[in-house]
UniProtKB/TrEMBL annotation, chains A, B:
Protein name: Peptidase M24
Organism name: Pseudoponticoccus marisrubri
Creatinase N-terminal domain sequence ranges: 16-160
Coiled-coil ranges (or none): none
Domain of life of the organism encoding this protein: Bacteria
Residue span(s) of domain Peptidase M24: 168-367
Length: 388, 388
């Protein structure tokens, strides 16, 4: 029965460890300490929805050489044994007296000499998925060893996708594409938005998603007010624009793109924004190249939107994608992260239609040497209509 | 179109702030700094699946008096305006140069005097949902103000559920109950486990869940090896025990209970474990009272299981439940958290059937003065059979 295995072969995990270790050498880091679902999955293949329970911390260490060392709650041992940890050490978590502190301390002390540096992601787009008190206790116990920021160490490796990774993201995109094709059967004038969200999630599951980690959207006349609010029960009405945005998951890999529909014919304002955003994405698909920066991508998307007579929204206009719904970099005027070959990215231009209402487009690409390769099925140039 | 509103009336959020502030006074805390989805939702009603994106940190402060202060990425402002923050301050996140650090520092400096103490949950079953570097920078900038652990401050308040909260959890349980009733139509001999997981998630959505944040389970002869692994494609076979465990979400409130089915008649070992676990839950339903501790609950469940000839599993045998899939306390031999009236809890006895295989039961209750009130529909005493 224990047939589940990580979605990539053992050699892929060996290659990841080697790439991280090369970068650790470059950054002067003697061991990595990883705590988040994505980092743990990346290094070991450990994939589970059990992260939904915040009760227990999980630690994976990557020493300067050799395979990953898992220091985890005992409940995770059977699954971790099917993954790619060279050593698995467990404790009975949650333990109010010592929830992994002494085991983690002892394990790190054995891997890193007293003058050594332990890398932990501490920077932009990271977080510590463990109690802060645990970090304090382990850091104090391990002195004079130092904890240093390993954000770049992890991000420069994780951001380049292998072909099997690209294939899984393409598969997630195809699943979402098939569910999107079914939206005219799901939504029309009179359908409450929350019913649309529910039926769309079911469609994603039926089309092959294992999990639907993210569905968002909005609906309203001339566009929507924001893209992160829960659905309400208001029925779709003629003149509404409906947007659905999904992060469906296939074997731990996400898609993240959206689609818009007009309930009946769109207004001129919506049509203008639609044309501008379609053109902005076309421009990025045409012009984006490795060697540009995230800021350059933002400029292409916002300037093209503006050149077509629409007002681009504040905020980022695209980002990385892979084993979380969003990854770095962020297409903003302030992010100068270089875009590199085989990054998977979203193009997400958005524009104001009328004051307080917006339209957002989103596509997923892998950046090749000669430009973007689409992973999501390209949105139609003209806004499709529902209920006509 | 902006019809969505938090699931509880404004007075409920005022009462929460007041309860936290009373406890803060008791604990000598001048402001709370909250970073996790559950804590932010608890204090403001801010509910969104957008937390799935790890790109941005979000901060909610609760001063010693007055309402919550939200220091959040600009993208969240429209939704937060529909929630219960008295002040909303935003920055254009993600910003590689200053991702909220200066705004958070300035805001906290205005709320807490130099001799003051800022409480942040740092203990068991918490984590910091923000970059560690952000915490370091804000802490250093705010010295001599001190950051102290606010785990108990938050947990002693959040763990007592109001009647509207209990009603929402009961509703989530009812949704899951209806989906469970449909499992005989979903699963039988020959159905691959991953297809069962998909169809079960769709059933939960169709029955009224807004999100299916958690579905897990297992299937195998004489039980399953663990309860957190992803589903594989192996078809169910006669002699298997199938288990499905769900954290379906209704208005931000979770259920968390499971059910087991036997594919054809169960073995004697499975039948024995089933009887012992059913008896263990019955004993807890009969005996649990406010004033007992989490350890006492563990003792009732494990000792009854053993008295009925089965071997209880290591690990916790129940836990809190509410706005995350699992909350404290944990029913282990080491957790002496007092059980209090109107805590919502899971009873989760599990036992070994044969070496390496287990059976797990789980029910959800609210603890009343005179004992548990079931929120989940009670599992049948006898293991139901599929495909007969």
């Amino acid at each position: 029965m224990a047939d589940w295995a990580p979605p990539l072969p053992p050699a892929a995990f060996e290659a990841r460890a080697a790439a991280l270790q090369a970068r650790m050498g470059h950054d002067g880091i003697d061991a990595l300490l990883l705590t988040t679902p994505a980092d743990v999955f990346y290094v070991t293949g450990f994939l589970t929805r059990f992260w939904e329970s915040p009760a227990r911390p999980w630690f994976v260490l990557l020493p300067a050489s050799g395979g990953p060392v898992a220091v985890i709650p005992a409940i995770g041992a059977p699954l971790m044994r099917r993954c790619h940890a060279e050593v698995i050490r467990t404790w009975p978590s949650p333990d109010p007296e010592d929830d992994g502190v002494s085991l983690l301390t002892e394990t790190l002390a054995g891997l890193v000499s007293e003058g050594g540096r332990i890398g932990l992601p501490m920077g932009l787009e990271t977080h510590l998925r463990a109690p802060l008190g645990t970090y304090h206790a382990v850091r104090d116990a391990l002195a004079p060893r130092r904890f240093v920021d390993a954000t770049a160490t992890v991000q420069r490796v994780r951001e380049i996708k292998s072909e099997p990774e690209v294939a899984l993201i393409r598969e997630a995109c195809a699943i979402a594409g098939r569910a999107i094709d079914r939206v005219p059967d799901i939504a029309g004038p009179g359908t409450p938005l929350d019913a649309v969200f529910r039926a769309f999630q079911s469609a994603l599951l039926e089309e092959g998603a294992e999990w639907v980690s993210y569905v968002a959207g909005g609906a309203g006349p001339e566009g929507y007010a924001d893209v992160i609010s829960p659905a309400d029960a208001r029925p779709l009405a003629p003149g509404d624009v409906l947007m659905l945005d999904t992060g469906a998951v296939r074997q731990g890999y996400f898609c993240d793109f959206d689609r818009n529909w007009s309930v009946g014919p769109p207004s001129d304002a919506v049509r203008r924004a639609q044309d501008a955003l379609y053109a902005a994405t076309e421009a990025a698909l045409d012009q984006l190249r490795p060697g540009m920066t995230a800021r350059d991508a933002h400029a292409i998307l916002s300037e093209t939107t503006r050149a077509h007579g629409a007002t681009p929204c504040e905020g980022r206009l695209g980002h990385g994608l892979g084993i979380t719904l969003t990854e770095w970099p962020s297409f903003t005027p302030r992010d100068d992260t270089p875009l590199r070959e085989n990054m998977v990215l979203t193009l997400e231009p958005s524009a104001e239609t009328v004051p307080g209402r917006i339209l957002c487009h989103e596509e997923n690409i892998v950046l090749r040497a000669d430009g973007p390769e689409l992973l999501s099925p390209r949105a139609p140039a003209t806004l499709p209509e529902l209920g006509t």
